[in-house]
Design goal:
Strand order of the largest sheet: 11-10-9-12-13-14-15-16
CATH superfamily of the largest domain: NAD(P)-binding Rossmann-like Domain
Largest sheet: 8 strands, mixed
Radius of gyration: 21 Å
Number of domains: 2
Order of helices and strands: HHHEHEHEEEEHEEEHEHEEHEEHHHHEEE
Number of helices: 13
CATH class of the largest domain: Alpha Beta
Structural class: alpha/beta
Strand content: 15-25%
CATH topology of the largest domain: Rossmann fold
Length: 451
């Protein structure tokens, strides 16, 4: 590898935002900008007893530690885990293992996410609260005094709330969005059309999917696995088929929730299957590109969770025998990296119709940082490859993960189906929703929740 290839392999995908926007004229300058970004999470005593609040906390820590290069501090966390994550002990140990440090008191000068029973005294004035009820999750300004009932056991709502909390603080730190941390932002994962602040009751997830086929193990695929792992699977393990061809690289640390430094240079399938096995899932791996050149077997998972950045692979998702497909895609550039599109199939348009246009163009390399690299290296092809890498944020993937896994759960519960759910974390109110024709009753198999 030459220097440009090494940089492509290692560059923090969110720091790349400062290169692509033209804000920074070098990688070093971009890293200095992000080194000033930090946040703290202040936790109430009730978090020790709530699996959903712990899902919010651990998702926020996992996301923030990958993108807040100035550091993440957690205040007030104690007790044992109410969710099952391998390799960790109690809650403080898990927080440290995910990259944050713990402290005894909040710093009033640091942007703050509050989770649980925390009073506003001593907390900075723009602090936000993560809150949930049933399938609803999001954040509200702490000073507003608003808070949902925080009832129910639906951990994807916690994943959603924790990820949106980091997204709001990140946008506040970046500037350019005055309403960040001054508004309510969230979703109702049962039905995107509903006002999440109503905290409307929905079906209880009393049974969990017994299998799924995860295609792609990058930002999205790992967010799916993270969200599945936080569900209350007990002794009856789910079967997961995990398909990917890539090797984990340092750049994955900045976007992917289950990538850690001791996994570097391992196949994604093998490293993540080891993690999933330790969680209690039954895994099988496939190390070949996804294409319409095979058929799934009768005893293999009939539902696919797709998270690939490849139009040809997306075109083929209905061609190999899956009964149901749930797919998400993320934005790539400085203006749309906070965007999420969710599709389900079969639908009114086939996957081949949705992704009929697979044309692409070379990325822009006129920004100051890329011009300087080109002058210094002369490696135009390498610069184009670097510029073509997408900007990625772990909190965007986590929001998408909560949406996709919720769609999977609704599949067997008989809830509404979103044929298309398109949203942007800059303004979740401006989402586009196309409700699908209700699928025929479909039960891919289910297992009971842990007692």
């Amino acid at each position: 590898m030459n220097d440009i290839d090494l940089l492509t392999d290692s560059l923090n995908r969110l720091v790349k935002l400062a290169l692509d926007s033209g804000e920074a004229s070098s990688v070093e300058e971009a890293e200095r900008i992000f080194a000033d970004y930090r946040m703290q999470i202040v936790v109430g005593p009730d978090v020790a007893e709530s699996a959903v609040l712990q899902a919010a906390l651990l998702t926020a820590v996992n996301c923030a530690s990958r993108c807040m290069l100035g550091g993440v501090t957690v205040v007030g966390a104690c007790g044992s885990l109410r969710v099952a994550l391998p390799s960790f002990g109690g809650l403080p140990d898990t927080i440290r293992g995910l990259g944050a440090r713990t402290a005894g008191a909040p710093d009033p000068a640091v942007p703050t996410l509050v989770i649980g029973d925390v009073m506003p005294e001593g907390i900075e004035r723009l602090a936000i609260r993560a809150t949930f009820a049933h399938w609803c999750g999001g954040v509200v300004p702490l000073a507003s005094g608003l808070r949902l009932a925080e009832n129910g056991l639906f951990t994807p709502a916690g994943v959603l709330a924790g990820a949106i909390g980091v997204a709001e603080i990140f946008q506040r730190l970046r500037g350019g969005l005055p309403v960040a941390c001054r508004r309510a932002a969230g979703l109702d994962l049962w039905d995107y059309r509903r006002d999440w602040m109503c905290g409307t009751e929905a079906s209880s997830a009393s049974r969990l999917p017994s299998s799924a086929w995860i295609i792609g193990l990058g930002n999205l695929g790992q967010a799916y696995l993270w969200t599945l792992a936080l569900l209350p699977y007990g002794g009856e393990a789910a079967e997961l088929v995990m398909q990917d061809v890539d090797v984990l690289a340092p750049s994955n640390l900045s976007t992917s929730l289950l990538t850690f430094r001791d996994m570097m240079r391992r196949k994604k399938t093998r490293a993540l299957a080891d993690w999933a096995d330790a969680r209690g899932f039954k895994t099988r791996i496939i190390e070949r590109p996804f294409a319409a050149d095979f058929r799934i077997g009768g005893r293999e998972p009939p539902v696919a969770l797709v998270g690939v950045d490849n139009a040809l692979a997306r075109q083929a998702v209905e061609d190999v025998g899956f009964a149901r497909v749930i797919e998400a895609g993320l934005g790539r550039g400085p203006q749309d990296f906070l965007g999420i599109d969710l599709h389900t199939f079969p639908a009114s348009k086939s996957a081949r119709q949705v992704w009929a246009d697979i044309s692409s163009s070379d990325p822009e390399i006129s920004q100051p940082a890329y011009r300087a690299m080109l002058e210094g290296s002369g490696d135009r092809c390498g610069i184009v490859r670097l510029a073509g890498r997408s900007i990625g944020a772990p909190f965007v993937g986590a929001v998408a993960g909560s949406m996709v896994v919720s769609e999977l759960l609704r599949l067997s519960l008989g809830g509404p189906r979103h044929e298309l759910g398109s949203c942007h974390l800059r303004d979740l109110q401006g989402r586009t929703i196309v409700m699908g024709t209700p699928w025929e009753a479909f039960n891919p198999g289910s297992v009971g929740i842990a007692a």
